[in-house]
From TrEMBL:
The UniProt record lists the keyword NAD: no
EC code: 3.2.2.28
Entries under Pfam families matching the protein: UDG
GO molecular function: pyrimidine-specific mismatch base pair DNA N-glycosylase activity; uracil DNA N-glycosylase activity
InterPro entries recorded: MUG/TDG (IPR015637), Uracil-DNA_glycosylase-like (IPR005122), Uracil-DNA_glycosylase-like_sf (IPR036895)
Keywords: DNA damage, DNA repair, Glycosidase, Hydrolase
Coiled coil regions, renumbered to chain: none
Disulfide bond listed as a keyword: no
Name used for this protein in its record: G/U mismatch-specific DNA glycosylase
Domain Uracil-DNA glycosylase-like: 18-178
A GO biological-process term: base-excision repair, AP site formation
Organism listed in the record: Streptomyces guryensis
């Protein structure tokens, strides 16, 4: 993995990272927003401490542990990646309430256009903020976007100490089974 200087990472602030999407995916994973490492590399969930890629594999969504640079291969598994808020920041707490709400509006439109079977938002706090649903918990939601069902997953950030890779993989695995994807 390329090492970036603090100045190079800071230069990635506010950059946009292209979605990895296609029409009719089985699951569209939705992060909070790109971090600076993701923006610098152009690869989702690129920060070394982020557990998204290991958990995706442990839960059976992918047959092997993938690197962020291999994100395009997700499409062959019927999977994709987007974000609630498109712009890159060092930390999610740099995002404001209106930015989350606007991100939720954009995400709803994107979901209705792309028509994945499931939208999986990784981070209950982001989901609550984007859709003004303060009582949401990890798991399937009542909300739908057209025919798309919604599942909230734990945030795979290394800062989320409440969930281990194993417990996250169990929750991701529940979604995989519900989505009808074989292991």
């Amino acid at each position: 993995m390329t090492r970036f200087t603090p100045a190079e990472l800071e230069a990635a602030r506010d950059r946009l990272v292209p979605d990895v999407v296609a029409d009719g995916l089985s699951v569209l994973f939705c992060g909070i927003n790109p971090g600076l490492m993701t923006a610098a590399t152009g690869h989702h969930f690129a920060r070394p401490g982020n557990r998204f890629w290991p958990v995706l594999h442990l839960s059976g969504f992918t047959p092997r542990l993938m690197k962020p640079s291999e994100q395009g291969e997700l499409l062959s598994y019927g999977l994709g990646i987007t974000n609630v808020v498109a712009r890159a920041t060092a930390r999610a707490d740099e995002l404001g309430a209106e930015e989350y709400r606007e991100g939720g509006r954009v995400l709803a439109l994107k979901t209705e256009q792309l028509r994945p079977r499931w939208l999986a938002v990784v981070g209950v706090t982001a989901y609550r903020a984007a859709f003004d649903d303060r009582l949401a918990q990890v798991g399937p939601q009542e909300r739908t976007f057209g025919e798309t069902r919604v599942w909230v997953l734990p945030n795979p950030s290394g800062l989320n100490a409440h969930w281990t890779a194993e417990t996250m993989a169990q929750e991701f695995g529940r979604l995989r089974v519900r989505a009808g994807l074989s292991q």
